[in-house]
Amino acid sequence: MKIEYFHDSKYGNGAAVAEEFNKLMSARGVAVNIHPIKDSKAKDIHPADLYVFSSPGRIGSPTWRVTRFLKKINLPKGVKYAILTTEGTPTPNKETGKLPTEEEWAKRQRVITKMNVILQGKGLVKLAEGKVYITGMKGPLEDGWQKKVESFTSQIPSSF
């Protein structure tokens, strides 16, 4: 099985997640090629069994670079993909002090939703999705983030 992993990472958090994904999948005998989106061209995507796309959350959306890249890719219908994002940790409401519910947070953080809309609109098939939280504007990644990447990889079979 071959995986092409495309990520955007301004402060290194997305790159760290990509490397952890690579380490875990390589231990299972799966080849992973990691590509920063800033260095990739949508027309030059190599054939693979699975494509993983990763974006940090910026004001509840994927970065403009990821959005543009996803809109430009031209993959055959039915190709499998997965999404693994890095997003801000939910914070308490300043007035009530309560953390938002999952539904409330999903209305604000629509990174995965927006990426899915683009990819499924092209006829691609989602295999897995996940997110890793960052604890500040530039990071670091949340404690135990490696376990979230491990959980994400467990959704991906070693072969199709």
CATH superfamily: Flavodoxin domain
**What's the main sheet like?**
5 strands, parallel
Q: What is the class in the CATH system?
A: Alpha Beta
Total beta-strand segments: 7
* Category from helices, strands and their pairing: alpha/beta
CATH topology: Rossmann fold
Please give the count of helices. Answer: 5
User: From the 3D coordinates, which CATH architecture would you assign?
Assistant: 3-Layer(aba) Sandwich
Order of helices and strands: EHEEEEHEHHEH
Specify the overall morphology.
globular
Report the uncertain regions.
none
Kindly, what is the distance between the CA atoms of the first and last residues, rounded to a whole number of angstroms? 8 Å
Q: In angstroms, what is the radius of gyration? A: 15 Å
Number of domains: 1
Q: For the residues shown, what is the average pLDDT?
A: 93
Helix fraction bin: 25-40%
Spatial sequence of strands, sheet with the most strands: 2-1-3-6-7
Strand content: 25-35%
